[in-house]
Amino acid sequence: MEILSIYLIKSSGLMAMFFLAYYFLLRKETFFTANRWFLLAGLITSALLPFVIFTKTIWVDPSPATIDWSNIPISAPMENTGFEINWYLVLAIGYGLGLLLFLIMFALDFYSLTKILKNKAIHQQADLKFIDLNENVAPFSFFNTIVYNSSLYTRSELESILEHEKVHSEQNHTLDVLISRLFCVVFWFNPIVWFYKNAIMQNLEFIADSEASKKISDKKAYQITLLKITTQENCVAISNHFYQSLIKKRIVMLNKNQSKNSNYWKYFSVLPALIAFVLFFQIEVIAQEKTVKTDTSKKVNSTEPDVQKKEIANDTVKKTKVIKVQTVNKDDQTEIFIDGKKVSKAEMDNLDPNRIATMDVTKNSGKSTIKIISRNTQGIPDDTEIYIDGERVSKKELDELNQNTIKQMDVNKTGSNKKTIKIITRSTNQSFNNTQAPVPPTPPTPPNFTFKTPKAPNFPKAPKAPKGDPINGDKKAWKQFENQMQEYEQKMQKAAPSMAAFEKQMEEFEKQMEPFNAEMKAFEKKMKVYEQQMEEYQSQLHAKK
Fold this sequence. Notes:
Elements: H1 2-26, H2 32-48, E1 54-60, H3 87-117, E2 123-125, E3 128-132, E4 140-142, E5 145-148, H4 155-170, H5 173-186, H6 191-215, H7 219-229, E6 240-241, H8 247-255, H9 271-281, E7 283-289, E8 297-300, E9 309-314, E10 321-326, E11 335-338, E12 341-343, H10 345-349, E13 356-364, E14 367-374, E15 385-388, E16 391-393, H11 395-400, E17 406-413, E18 419-425, H12 475-544
Parallel strand pairs: 1-7, 3-5, 11-14, 15-18
Antiparallel strand pairs: 2-3, 4-5, 4-6, 8-9, 9-10, 11-12, 13-14, 15-16, 17-18
């Protein structure tokens, strides 16, 4: 549901962007055919562009291997026993019910259309089909079928109506209507989609009026026919019907002068917003840590320089340990003990590294001693006394001890040759309910955002059209409105450089944001690791109770 919600939000945003560009820049232009393709391109782009994802890989430095996890305060988990509402489920159910409702309404519109066309006499003319009804239905067309009632109009009026509907059929305007209706079904919750559909329907009428008026000699009679048809309100919803409620606008556009070709730049005004949308929402930055080649061998030295050294090499795949003992001085006085038994250097070299639990290197009076405890106690004599944190335990309990918790191990031998093994674990320094409290993890530090977003330029305010229409309205007011529109267009042309400068600023801003986005990706990965560590930490806290 979360993925669907993100898709619907992105698509709705793109749809709103195209609609606003049409409403404020293109709605009053006479480029009707270009407006048609612009509106359809807006719907197609809003449906497909959210699926287009670009990936960009950013290489970041690896995080340090050792992290201090002790800076976070210990807090016991709170058990939430109250009722929680799954809002994703609520939204999904609401959206599904709305989708079902509008699908039913769409199906009912199709049913009403087929009911009107069923068993009616058809007159074929070339590729067009004409149906003359007796019902009081406004003239309409559906693909190549034109429906009308000839008894309601004079011959000249009927000629104007048929020329109008022929344009709808020949240019396949029904496809535009069906596409807009389907978008209304899917995006029923978005009010912009309903305004978008009305804009498509209105522009289709502008196209039909413009083309039909070219074939009719008396343009005034055509306008009178428009006004006459307004009295008929029985229209089929999913068809191109001759009647539209915005008759005044249609008459205004019929009498409006052709727009200047220089105004075609307005169609490209949406490109900066599309580019910004892709840069902000459609680029996925993948952060990968750089691989650093390091020497994995570690030398463990004693407190004095002439003590024997042990070298442990960690293999990153097999996790094995290779132990080598080298004596610095010529006189080899090193004593080696494995599980309390004195052995030679060759025996120690033959010891399986995976069996080693701990190794203790000490020096006393110039004599070095290496004490190794293996992961099993088969080499420990039966009379050996074993103590863990001061409590005597058996060899079986020693085998079950987690080797990672051993902090210190001492092997002593008394005068009666009786051996004692004393182990101190890391759980004796701090207590939590009489046991060691697990060390809490430290959350990663988020990157700082210190960038300033560029400010978009201010667009000039569009003038408000006077009431009425240019023919019957206040001609002086309409003349003044035309002058204001020319000034407005000049201001918009002057604003073009500012818009171009803003685009460059946005590009620079995006470049500056790339390292931050990469750091955020790395931070999110660290947060996932931190969340897993917190879950383990909470589990350990519960286990201690």
